[in-house]
TrEMBL record:
It comes from the Bacteria. It is a multi-pass membrane protein. The chain crosses the membrane at residues 20-40, 52-73, 79-100, 107-129, 135-153, 162-180. It comes from Geobacillus thermopakistaniensis (strain MAS1). GO terms for molecular function: pentosyltransferase activity. Keywords: Cell membrane, Glycosyltransferase, Membrane, Transferase, Transmembrane, Transmembrane helix. One of its GO terms (biological process) is response to iron(III) ion. Residues 196-232 are annotated as: Disordered. Its main location: membrane. This is Glycosyl transferase.
Amino acid sequence: MFFKLKKTCVVLFQLPLAGQASWLLPFAAVVAIGLGMDVWRRRQMTAFHQFLLFWFAWLGPMLVFFSIAGFYHRYYLSMLAPAIAVLVGAGGAMLALLACSGRRTMWLFPAALVATYAFEVWTACQYRASFSPVWPLAVGFYGLGMVCLWFAMEGREHGRRIVYRAALIGVLALPAYWSLTPVLYGTNSTIPYAGPDLQRDRGAPMPTAGMPDGQEERLLRGETGQPGDGARRWQTSHLLTALVSYLEQHVGEAKYLAATIRATEAAELMLHTDRAVMAMGGFGGTDPVLTPKKLEEMARNGEVKYFLLSGEGRGNHELVQWIQTHCKEVPFSEWNGGQKALDGGVERREMTLYVYNG
């Protein structure tokens, strides 16, 4: 359940990653050029240069990793944010000063603006199915105006300060809107991301195992609609409350209220009880957390008594087989709290409760 991408140095500038943490990377790239030119011009490295170099040392390895790694989730890119923020903030001030220091460096700040505005407009326009291109084009023309004003204010320090601030505000306009989209439209709660396409996709928890071909790509784009994801489809159902109530009444002194194969199912139970819930297969249900022998030992010692299995994508087949062989299925009518089998979209076949009686 990771993003599978081609290994290329420009992957962060391509969709769907470009709209996440890459907005200001062109600006940071020009800052790197400006840093080198300023060190060469001064023939020494000041404390400020070392400060910027530190943050490039943070950013560089991450850029290399995300460019060559063939798989990861989009929200991993948030690790780039601190370094990019510092380099744009502090580095932008350096570029503005260099622009007034001589002919060789006067182009750096305008170049950073042009590159960044152009990349942002291009990225935003790729989402024209969910986002009107009028707005990114307006931002682009605004940026072009700022560049023209920057050159027009040559020799006017106060005027350039105003243009500098206005230009950076414009640079942040589209990223600011993108960062608000999860709040405005909701996002995928398991693999969160940002973008105007959330308006139509409306994120939801993601099934993490047993997905048919093509489903992974749709989920990575934030699309949902996979039928039968038990952990998702019962999220707002009274069945969950009824199940937790039943378990708390019958689990006794067991260490765990119940055990599930996947963390997504365990998380739903954890939110409704103060008791511990065990995810036997880790996040996606396939991690070798427990062996059948270890699970049997825990059951015999009274650490775990109840097991909740999902009807699809059961993941760790050895554990599932042990549970089905050594445990007894609890009839749906005993723990459903009087709810109908289809209440909240939860069908009986999707969630099965087992009890270990020794």
